[in-house]
Design goal:
single chain, Rossmann fold
């Protein structure tokens, strides 16, 4: 019995020492990443006045630097291709935990897939795995049952297969992250060739409860922290789903919703699109200018309301 106990203790001690050797991979993983935006959030380096949240429609179609130039408010794009509203909520929650709160959040809406299960829109766990050395990230992975409680004790339990890579993540040829976090499409040899698909009947029964909950939680988080939200519907080469739009307007104040200028012929040209949902850089500039004007009008209106309120108190 004594020998068994001795061997058990020796085994555990050896395992513990070997496990700590994996700390190299855990610590080294973030240095290999091309997209460092989430780590900047965790390090408290995301103190901006305007933040853009969304999927690739926000990342590729909205140019944060252009908004900053026009509004004179520091702006950054925290949109992630392939992400859904649950991830957008997580990003904003993380920003508020480690950084100064923004004045405004621009939330890009995926029409009509915002609240339904869509295979191209998910919680981006792959953005969390390289940052597992942070307890905050590990806590989130455990909460979402991507990791178990052993992650609090063992380095190996925190690691994902991707963490064992020793090569830097390749920089994309197009859609690179610029200095403001946006990912504009600059180059394309051939024009996008698509067709106008008909809109199917929007079915509310298909809505995902978790996504609806995350959306409401994001709204409450902004309300609690006195952050204004602007909801943006980007252009698409496909047909605009008016039924989803009407459903969405029942959930938010209509004056906070901005829809692209459907009368602008630039959004009807194939050459303006990288693919059905994403604009080429020149068209993205036009769309971003529309957003900038909408935001500037919002800021001006808020300042006027504050001035009128102060005057009445006098």
């Amino acid at each position: 019995m004594r020998r068994f106990i001795l061997h058990s203790v020796l085994f555990l001690a050896t395992f513990f020492v070997v496990d700590k050797m994996f700390y190299f991979f855990l610590h080294h993983a973030p240095t290999l990443e091309y997209d460092t935006r989430l780590e900047q959030i965790l390090e408290g380096k995301m103190n901006k006045e305007l933040l853009i949240l969304g999927s690739s429609r926000g990342a590729n179609n909205i140019l944060a630097g252009q908004i900053e130039s026009k509004t004179r408010h520091s702006t950054y794009n925290l949109s992630y291709p392939g992400s859904d509203v649950r991830f957008h909520y997580f990003v904003l929650k993380s920003v508020l935990k480690y950084n100064k709160k923004p004045k405004m959040v621009v939330l890009t809406i995926d029409n009509p897939h915002e609240f339904v299960n869509e295979k191209t829109l998910n919680f981006r766990f792959d953005r969390l795995y390289p940052l597992a050395k942070y307890n905050y990230i590990t806590q989130e992975l455990i909460r979402q049952k991507e990791k178990n409680v052993l992650s609090w004790v063992f380095c190996l339990a925190r690691l994902n297969r991707s963490n064992f890579s020793v090569s830097k993540v390749a920089i994309p040829l197009d859609g690179k992250i610029d200095a403001w976090g946006s990912m504009p499409f600059y180059n394309r040899k051939a024009s996008f060739i698509g067709k106008k698909n008909s809109v199917q009947l929007y079915n509310r029964s298909l809505e995902n409860t978790e996504k609806l909950t995350a959306f409401k939680a994001l709204q409450q988080l902004c309300l609690k922290n006195k952050i204004q939200i602007v909801y943006v519907f980007p252009p698409s080469y496909g047909a605009f789903d008016k039924q989803f739009y009407k459903r969405f307007l029942k959930m938010v104040p209509a004056h906070d919703v901005m829809v692209y200028n459907t009368l602008n012929t630039i959004y009807q040209k194939e050459a303006s699109f990288h693919d059905e949902s994403h604009l080429q850089q020149k068209a993205a500039q036009v769309f971003t200018n529309e957003i900038s004007t909408f935001i500037q009008n919002k800021i001006t209106s808020n300042e006027k309301n504050r001035f009128d309120s102060a005057t009445q108190k006098l």
